[in-house]
């Protein structure tokens, strides 16, 4: 297993997810997963 590579991929996905959350604050309902633990 290439752990560093997996972490890098996870970090990129997390950054994109955070960008979607920030976009949702500007545009309501753009990216709203029903069960989001960070959105409470």
Specify the helix fraction band: 55-70%
General shape = rod-shaped
Annotation field: number of helices: 1
C-alpha Rg, in Å?
13 Å
Fold and architecture overview:
- This protein is mostly helical and 40 residues long.
- The chain is 60% helix and 0% strand.
- The protein is built from 1 helix and no strands.
- The longest helix is centred in the middle third of the chain and has 24 residues, at 3-26.
Describe, in short, the structure shown:
The protein contains one helix and no strands. The chain is mostly helical.
Keyword list:
single chain, 40 residues, mainly alpha, 1 helix
Secondary structure layout plus pairing:
Blueprint: H1 3-26
């Amino acid at each position: 297993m290439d752990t560093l590579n997996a972490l890098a991929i996870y970090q990129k996905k997390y950054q994109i997810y955070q960008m979607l959350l920030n976009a949702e604050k500007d545009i309501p309902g753009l990216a709203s997963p029903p069960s989001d633990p960070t959105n409470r």
